[in-house]
Specification:
The structure is a homodimer.
Chain A: H1 5-12, H2 16-24, E1 32-33, E2 39-40, H3 43-57, H4 62-74, H5 79-119, H6 134-141
Antiparallel strand pairs in A: 1-2
Helix pairs in contact in A: 5-6
The structure holds a DNA duplex.
Chain lengths: ~150, ~150
DNA sequence: TCTTGACTTAAACTTGACTTTAAGTATTAA
DNA sequence: TTAATACTTAAAGTCAAGTTTAAGTCAAGA
C-alpha cells in the first residue's frame, strides 16, 4: 500500500510543498519512486516523517536532522553517534518540560489572581489576607507585586 | 533602586535593543523616565518583563501581549477579559505539556533502542525477544518498524 | 484521450521577532 | 569636562522554515 504526495500530505496534515522541501533537503532519501518518478509513500515513510516532526519539536534544526539521516544510511558504524544524539535530545526535552511546568505555575497563579480580583470586583485586593492553595502561595512569595 | 537599560539588559539576559523594541511596541508603558528621558527600570518592571517572557513562551505573539497590557491600563473594567486570556493561555500550556511528554516518550524509546542495538553491536535486533521496560513496550506497540 | 495530479528548477515571498546600522543628540556620574 | 552610556528615528538586515509562483513537462487512472 503506497500513497501519492497529496494523499500523504492529507493523511499527515503536512503541506505537499513541505514534503518536497524536506525531500530536497535530504530528509526523505528512503521514499521510493515509481518508474515515472512519482513519490510512493509507505507506512515506514510515515514513521520516518513522524520522527522528523518529533526531532523538530525538540528544537533540532533541519540540517541536524539530515545529519542523523545520513548517519542512519551509513549503517552500524554510526550507532554511537546516533545514540549520543538522542541522549542530547533527551536532555533538551527534559529542560523543555521543566520550563513548561514553570510557565504553567505562573499561569495558574494568574488565573487564581484574576478569579480572586473578580470576586472582589476590583484589583485592590490585599492577597496576603486571602486563603489560597499552597502552590499559589509558593509562587506568590517570589513576586514583588501581585501583578 | 532603579537601573539603566544596559544594567537591566545584563540582569535579565536580554539585549538592550530588545527592550527598546518592546517599549516601541507598547509592551513597557509603565517604565518611568528621568527628566532627561532616560529609562529607569525598577523591580516591578522586571516582573512585568518576566511576565512578558512567560506569555511569549506560551506562544503568544507580541501584539496580543500588548492587548493585555492595554487592558491592564484600562483598569477594572477589563478584569474578565484578562482572566479569560489567562485561561486560554492555561489551555495552551497544558497542550504544550502533553506534547512535550509525548516527545519525551519517543526520545526515551530511541535511547533504549540505540542502547540495545549497541549492545548487540548492530541494528538487526529482533526487539520482540528482548526484555524492556513497560513504557518502552507500550510505545513500541504503536510503531510499524523499530526504526 | 482527457483530466487530475504529479514532477522539475529557481527564485521570490512570507512570518515574527528581533538585531544592526546610521547618524546625530542628550544625559549623567566621576 | 569628559567618557560612557543613553536617547531618537528609520530603515535595512537576519534567521529558519517554510510557502508561493512560474512555467513547462510527465504520469496514470477512467
Amino acid at each position: 500500500m503506497t500513497y501519492l504526495i497529496g494523499q500523504t500530505a492529507e493523511k499527515l496534515g503536512i503541506n505537499p510543498s513541505t514534503l518536497r522541501y524536506y525531500d530536497k533537503e535530504g530528509l526523505l532519501p528512503f521514499v521510493q519512486r515509481s518508474e515515472g518518478g512519482i513519490r510512493q509513500f509507505c507506512d515506514t515513510d510515515f514513521e520516518w516523517i513522524r520522527l522528523i516532526e518529533c526531532l523538530k519539536s525538540t528544537g533540532m534544526p533541519i540540517k541536524d536532522i539530515k545529519q542523523f539521516i545520513d548517519w542512519y544510511i551509513q549503517g552500524d558504524s554510526t550507532l554511537e553517534k546516533r545514540r549520543d544524539m538522542f541522549y542530547e535530545r533527551k536532555t533538551a526535552v527534559q529542560k523543555q518540560l521543566e520550563e513548561v511546568k514553570k510557565t504553567l505555575e505562573i499561569i495558574n497563579y494568574k488565573c487564581w489572581y484574576y478569579d480572586t480580583a473578580i470576586i472582589a470586583k476590583n484589583e485592590n485586593i490585599r492577597t496576603e489576607d486571602i486563603e489560597m492553595p499552597e502552590e499559589i502561595r509558593q509562587y506568590k512569595k517570589r513576586l514583588v507585586t501581585g501583578i
